[in-house]
Design goal:
2 domains; mainly alpha; Helix Hairpins; elongated; about 260 residues
């Protein structure tokens, strides 16, 4: 029963995730992915900074330990010299005191040398870790730059996809019936072209009709009478005959 509930839960989770991914805006999801990558890079930088800081601190401790070695070595040498001088003077008490002091400095020197050797090993390990941290940051930074460049490319592709989807939708609306009462573009084209063809045919029939020829005869008669009337008026005024306009298709005489 428990396994069945687990399977049902996983199935519901996968189904809900699929529906969410289908409904989610890819642009928002892309920005979320970039934000998460930036956060991871920032955490990596902080961890690398801690590793490098540990390497720097170990280096400073080593430098102080080496300085202490030089100091203890100088003090031990000074105590040995003073003990030898006291022995030469016959001051055995001072010689013993200086010898004891020299032994104390020598013990400190041995401890400091051990600390230096230990710090050298720690510094070597810390330096390797710091170098690895720097390389990881540099590698992740390069990956981030690539992701940012890919983001611009993907955003451009997303805008192109949206535009193409709108074009496809518009083309589909021209070739498909939008609703029951809305004709297609091709149906409208056929209807308009049919009316235009019918109008052209009617015009041709009108031009070839008897009424049209009768109108042409009447217009020619009116033009002849008008020309005769103009000739009478010019004669009454003592003017010469009006120059005749060349008829359509006639060529005017050439002048010398």
């Amino acid at each position: 029963m428990f396994k069945l509930m687990q399977r049902a839960w996983k199935y519901m989770t996968a189904a809900m995730t699929g529906r969410f991914n289908e409904a989610a805006d890819p642009k928002v999801q892309l920005e979320q992915a970039i934000t998460e990558a930036n956060d991871q890079h920032r955490r990596l930088v902080q961890q690398a900074a801690n590793v490098i800081a540990n390497q720097k601190q170990t280096e400073m401790r080593l430098n102080r330990a080496m300085e202490d070695i030089e100091k203890q070595n100088g003090l031990a040498r000074q105590a040995v010299t003073m003990a030898d001088d006291a022995t030469k003077r016959g001051d055995s008490a001072k010689a013993v005191e200086y010898t004891q002091a020299a032994e104390s400095f020598a013990n400190r020197l041995v401890a400091s040398e051990r600390e230096v050797e230990s710090l050298k090993q720690l510094l070597l390990q810390a330096t390797q870790a710091a170098n690895q941290a720097k390389a990881a940051v540099a590698q992740n930074s390069s990956a981030m730059q690539k992701k940012l460049a890919d983001r611009q490319k993907l955003l451009g592709q997303l805008d192109q996809a949206k535009m193409q989807e709108q074009v496809n939708s518009a083309m589909a609306s021209l070739n498909e019936t939008v609703g029951q009462d809305v004709p297609t573009f091709e149906e409208i084209r056929t209807k308009i072209e049919g009316r235009y063809a019918k109008a052209l045919g009617t015009s041709e029939l009108t031009e070839q009709s008897v009424e049209n020829r009768m109108l042409e005869v009447e217009q020619a008669t009116v033009n002849t009478e008008a020309q005769a009337k103009l000739s009478d008026i010019r004669a009454q005024l003592g003017l010469g005959p009006a120059p005749s306009s060349p008829a359509s298709g006639d060529v005017p005489p050439a002048t010398d």
